[in-house]
Amino acid sequence: MKTVAVVPVGAVAAEVLAGIELCLGRHFGLETQRLAPLGEPEFAWEPARQQYSVIAIMRELLRFCPPHAVRLLALTEKDLFIPMLSFVFGQAQLNGTLAIVSLARLRQEFYHLPANPPLLLARACKETVHEMGHTFGLTHCLEPKCPMSLSTTIQQVDDKGENFCANCTIVLRESLQLLRTREVLRTEEQP
């Protein structure tokens, strides 16, 4: 089975990357491969907003997905936005290969509170599961405890769980099975 490539955009702590890699394995059953960090995304900086354009970063990331990877997950400490929202915790291509998660607003320090590394990792895992779920065809879920529920506040992130609801689990299993079937067919076609 192919892997999920994990790439830091700018500096991201090794323990956060390791925790996210474990989270990916636990929820998607896919191996991970950590890529070398990409530089700071200064090209995506929007001075008027004092944030980074997730669209500009994703456009650049499309060039970095290795051919052996089924997905590319980018992690960054940068505060991200899309034009229609004041910020996003992350963004992904629906049924695509690319997802990105921002740690900026998942940190307690963003809210002028003391650092809490376990809480940061729990939040980052939920948002990673959410964004990666989109790449496997999952849309926003109405079940508030499902990680696929929409989160526009940090409280909503904290309130949801890490495990998919029954309906999202079914869709994810079908998507992963299709991925495995395609992989088997590709392997059989090679001489």
Give the helix/strand class. Answer: alpha/beta
Quick one: how many beta strands? 9
* Helical content class: 25-40%
Q: What proportion strand?
A: 15-25%
Q: Main β-sheet, in a few words?
A: 5 strands, mixed
Number of helices: 5
Strand order of the largest sheet: 2-1-5-9-8
SSE topology:
Blueprint: E1 3-9, H1 14-28, E2 31-34, E3 45-46, E4 51-53, H2 54-61, E5 69-76, E6 80-82, E7 85-88, E8 90-92, E9 98-102, H3 117-135, H4 154-159, H5 166-189
Question: How would you describe the overall organization of this protein?
Answer:
The radius of gyration is 16 Å and the shape is globular. Helix 1 (14-28) packs across helix 3 (117-135). It has 191 residues and is an alpha/beta fold. The strands form 2 sheets. Strands 2-1-5-9-8 form a 5-stranded mixed β-sheet, with helices on both faces. Strands 3-4-6-7 form a 4-stranded mixed β-sheet. The chain is built from 5 helices and 9 strands. The longest helix has 24 residues, at 166-189. 38% of the residues lie in helices and 20% in strands.
